[in-house]
Amino acid sequence: MSFTTLISAAKLAGHLDDPHWIVFDCRHDLVDTETGRRAYLQSHIPGARFVHLDEDLSGPRTGTNGRHPLPDPARFCARLATLSMNHDKQAVAYDASGGCYAARLWWVLRWLGHERAAVLDGGWDAWLKAGLRVTAQLPAVTPGSFNGIADDKTVDASFILSTLEQPRIRLIDARSPDRFRGENETLDPVGGHIPGALNRFFRLNLDADGCFKPAAVLRQEFSELLGSRPPAQVVHQCGSGVTACHNLLAMEIAGLAGSKLYPGSWSEWCSDPRRPVAR
Question: What pTM was computed for the model?
Answer without folding.
Answer: 0.97
